[in-house]
Amino acid sequence: MKLGWFNIISIAVFIFSININAEEISGYDTSETGIRVVKKIFISGNNHTKHKVIINELPFTAGSFVSSQSIKSLSERARENLLNTTLFNYVSVNYWFPNDNDVIFDIKVEERWYIWVFPIFEQEGRNFSDFLRLNDGSYFNYGLYFKHDNLRGRNETLKLRMVTGHKNQLVLGYENPGYNNRSGWGVNLGWLVYDQVPYTTNDDKQVFLKALGEEITRQANVEILYFYRHNLDHRHWLTAQYIDYWIADTLKKIKPDYLPKGSTKSKIIELGYKYQYDTRDSKVYPLEGSLYEAEITRRGIGLLSDYNGFFQGKIITAWHIPLLNRFYGSTQVTLSGIDRKEVPYVFKTGLGYNEYLNGFEFRVIDGSSFSSVQNKLLFELVPRKEKKLTFIPIKQFSKIHYAFYLKLQLDGGYVVNKNKLPGNFMANSLLIGYGVGLDLVTFYDKVLSINYSANNFSEHGIFVHFNLAM
């Protein structure tokens, strides 16, 4: 897949031309047409969250006109939007008609716990199953994590992360997502050191260079983000990032093209844009709705170094459809590509890094472009249940919810690699993964997935994922 300027401009024109607006109804005699006026909106339970944060998520406002037939769907949409802010554990939206012309909405929320300070003990790896395969005792990180969600009650996020172990990392970030039809912004500062890193692939698996206790790679970065959201469902992101890379001579000797120009140091500027149209009922575990996403990034622009970089683009579409009697179906299609046959290893692309197919958890399939189709058929084994834990005194944790889903999955993919290394064999071949699984969906956006999967290369096994949501 080669992204020329014509293709990039075409994608941009297509993105900006999309304008899906909700109908606005005004100027009608409400007593004759079945149109009602939103007379009042009552909000309760938001002890910390500002009213305007909640109002921002509603598909109606006080004084607006709504059809009587749409009130139920608008109420459900309001509830889904509020849950998708990740600010609340529970949301209820009720309404009543005080007369023939008006409607009153009553919104009740139960806020989450917003301040997190806890020690970190985590695995390092592309996914949990691959971590279990690789683990020799050195693939753990430990440290301290501080995060303040909903800072000042305005849905702002402040985070500080300090870890050591498999990697030494320091991250400081702030994000103000803004409001509907208004912009927001964010900034991230990071410092990262590894004493063991992958530097190539063999048998379509990562090969690591280890120098325990000695620095092999180091990077520092500054990222600035700009957000804009309109009509509730349309989101735009602009990002600018500066990254300072350094690698040890030992890594350069065995992998001369790890950084651009065969250097041990490189300063890279990245510029990116992403557009998203999202109507899914849940961002964590969607059962209904659709997602359309397009992203273009320029990695390296010839400033601060003589590396001119490359373009990387990605398109994602997903559909989630309720079927009969607690059955649900979903399909996600992903297309990704760069405008180069080969890039420095630090920018390596393909399936297995950020995206993977079920049944290929252990594999990393390098290539300049790839496509994938992931299909799931879900059965709601245990519908959502709520349980009160009376022995927990903190109300944000004393009430939990959970649901279980059985699933069948069938994935397909293809990776294009015109410079495939001799020891790898999965690129330029049809990839098929399939299997069955059980998902647990519970509060605070947690998803545990246990799958038995196989692929068309006669590999199979049990794979575990956390927070897996397609």
Structure description:
- The structure is a single chain.
- The protein is mostly beta strands.
- The chain contains seven helices and 24 strands.
- It has helices spanning 5-17, 30-33, 51-55, 71-84, 128-134, 249-254, 395-398, and strands at residues 35-44, 65-67, 88-96, 102-111, 115-123, 140-151, 156-165, 167-176, 182-194, 196-202, 205-210, 217-230, 234-247, 265-278, 289-299, 310-322, 327-338, 350-351, 365-366, 369-388, 399-416, 430-442, 446-455, 460-466.
- Strands 5-6-7-8-9-12-13-14-15-16-17-20-21-22-23-24 form a 16-stranded antiparallel sheet. A four-stranded mixed sheet has the order 2-1-4-3.
- The longest helix is centred in the N-terminal third of the chain and has 14 residues, at 71-84.
- The radius of gyration is 24 Å and the shape is globular.
- It starts with a helix and ends with a strand.
- Residues 1-31 have low confidence and may be disordered.
Structure characteristics:
single chain; 470 residues; mainly beta; 16-stranded antiparallel beta sheet; 4-stranded mixed beta sheet; 24 strands; 11% helix; disordered N terminus
Q: In a nutshell, what does this entry contain?
A:
With 470 residues, the protein is mostly beta strands.
Strand-helix topology:
Elements: H1 5-17, H2 30-33, E1 35-44, H3 51-55, E2 65-67, H4 71-84, E3 88-96, E4 102-111, E5 115-123, H5 128-134, E6 140-151, E7 156-165, E8 167-176, E9 182-194, E10 196-202, E11 205-210, E12 217-230, E13 234-247, H6 249-254, E14 265-278, E15 289-299, E16 310-322, E17 327-338, E18 350-351, E19 365-366, E20 369-388, H7 395-398, E21 399-416, E22 430-442, E23 446-455, E24 460-466
Parallel strand pairs: 1-4
Antiparallel strand pairs: 1-2, 3-4, 5-6, 6-7, 7-8, 8-9, 9-12, 10-11, 12-13, 13-14, 14-15, 15-16, 16-17, 17-20, 18-19, 20-21, 21-22, 22-23, 23-24
